[in-house]
């Protein structure tokens, strides 16, 4: 391990661990970051990420490796988990065929939520259990080849190939970044009068001890877009769509959707609710009525949204409608409110269908809205609260 101070590094790369529950992700992480292994099977609670600093081609790279908190059992990993990740280790268990078959679903999830340029390594873990093997090495290799991924069989128990797996991911990320940055430098050199040239010469990189978070996309986009954006450090703070033009487009759409989708929805909700029997007068509803109705709203909302979302992910609808919703992986600043109308409509509809069916008291409706917003904030903020319902309820906050 590098003996430099922990905050002295040239690059910080976020890497996510994904794959079915029980394949050994948490042990791979503890093996790599602390050289520890634990035979007991306990699901990961509360760990967000662990880091390790190491050398990659003479540069000090800090790998920040994110582990799930067990949500993978319910396929309830939020997009915050993938945000900013430049690498992924997709793990399956060589003794459990099903975990290998699910690799494609995980890839789909990655392609949905993570940046499209993310570097992916597939790992067939528990290679020490060769006698129990149900996935041949060759099967793993050919799937990886077909999908364009790197591949290794690993064992967290025997510490075999763990180091190599991360080293491979990190070098691949580093190569892409340096190649693209070089291309950007050339592009800048070819365009006189475009402002400061990008200087990523060896010495400038070496001198840089600042926290440099480099989303892969940032440096990839450098070469094609505005070469005068100059320094690699600045580029580190760019995200996929963060150009002024993208901001403008995003905010225009945001306003458009607010006025043309949200507003009509808000305007029809009141007449619909009153027509369906909503009341705002005394007597107030009993707590039993309130809690039964709210429980019903949560269930029906989840049901409608789940199936709606499944339908949106069908081939045609995904390609023609829903992919637009994934256009902004990380809305930014003022645009953080951004959501595509299909989502607004589905969520809006799912949220009001319960109250519309039961005609609640206004107090119940308010309480429902408050709980609903709390659920959204909790599920999307990227933090794992000890009181999170996701610890108890399968599928809780499972989408987006
Ligand atoms: P996760 O759910 O993917 O995080 O999996 P864990 O890291 O919690 O591991 C699940 C179980 O598999 C635990 O009992 C581990 O001890 C075991 N395990 C993990 N890696 C290996 C490995 O390389 N070899 C063997 N034999 N067991 C492993
Ligand atoms: Mg785990």
From TrEMBL:
Membrane topology: Lipid-anchor
Superkingdom of the source species: Eukaryota
GO function terms (MF aspect): GTP binding; GTPase activity; iron ion binding; oxidoreductase activity
Domain Fatty acid hydroxylase: 295-390
Subcellular locations according to the entry: Endomembrane system
Cited Pfam families: FA_hydroxylase (PF04116), Ras (PF00071)
Keywords on record: GTP-binding, Lipoprotein, Membrane, Nucleotide-binding, Prenylation, Protein transport, Transmembrane, Transmembrane helix, Transport
Protein's UniProt keywords contain Transferase: no
GO BP term (any one): protein transport
PANTHER family reported for this sequence: DRAB11-RELATED (PTHR47979)
Family: Belongs to the sterol desaturase family. Belongs to the small GTPase superfamily. Rab family.
Protein name: Fatty acid hydroxylase domain-containing protein
High-level lineage: Eukaryota, Viridiplantae, Streptophyta, Embryophyta, Tracheophyta
């Amino acid at each position: 391990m590098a003996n430099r101070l922990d905050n002295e590094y040239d690059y910080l790369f976020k890497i996510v661990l994904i794959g079915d529950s029980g394949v050994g992700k948490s042990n791979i992480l503890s093996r790599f970051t602390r050289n520890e292994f634990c035979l007991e099977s306990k699901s990961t609670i509360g760990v967000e990420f662990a880091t390790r600093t190491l050398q990659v081609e003479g540069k000090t790279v800090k790998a920040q490796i994110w582990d799930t908190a067990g949500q993978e059992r319910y396929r309830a990993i939020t997009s915050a988990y993938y945000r900013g990740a430049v690498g992924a280790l997709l793990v399956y268990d060589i003794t459990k065929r099903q975990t290998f078959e699910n690799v494609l679903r995980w890839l789909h999830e990655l392609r949905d939520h993570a940046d499209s340029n993310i570097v992916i390594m597939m790992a067939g873990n528990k290679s020490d259990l060769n006698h129990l093997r149900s996935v041949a090495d060759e099967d793993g290799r050919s799937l990886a080849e077909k999908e364009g991924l790197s591949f290794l069989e690993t064992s967290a128990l025997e510490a075999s190939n763990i180091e190599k797996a991360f080293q491979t991911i990190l070098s691949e990320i580093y190569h892409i970044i340096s190649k693209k940055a070089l291309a950007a430098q050339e592009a800048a050199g070819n365009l006189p009068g475009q402002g400061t040239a990008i200087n990523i010469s060896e010495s400038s990189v070496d001198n840089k001890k600042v926290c440099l978070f480099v989303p892969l996309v940032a440096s990839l986009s450098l070469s094609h877009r505005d070469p005068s954006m100059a320094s690699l450090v600045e580029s580190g703070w760019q995200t996929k769509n963060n150009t002024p033009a993208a901001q403008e487009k995003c905010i225009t759409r945001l306003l458009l959707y607010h006025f043309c989708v949200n507003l009509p929805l808000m305007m029809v909700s009141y007449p619909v609710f009153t027509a369906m029997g909503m009341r705002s007068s005394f007597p107030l509803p009993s707590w039993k009525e309130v809690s039964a109705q709210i429980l019903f709203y949560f269930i029906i909302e989840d049901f409608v949204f789940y199936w709606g979302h499944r339908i949106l992910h069908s081939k045609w609808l995904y390609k023609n409608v829903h992919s637009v919703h994934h256009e902004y992986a990380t809305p930014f600043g003022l645009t953080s409110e951004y959501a595509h109308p299909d989502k607004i409509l589905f969520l809006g509809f799912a949220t009001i269908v319960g109250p519309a069916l039961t005609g609640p008291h206004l107090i119940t409706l308010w309480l429902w809205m408050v709980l609903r917003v709390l659920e959204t904030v909790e599920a999307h903020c990227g933090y794992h609260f000890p009181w999170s319902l996701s610890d108890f309820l399968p599928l809780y906050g499972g989408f987006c």
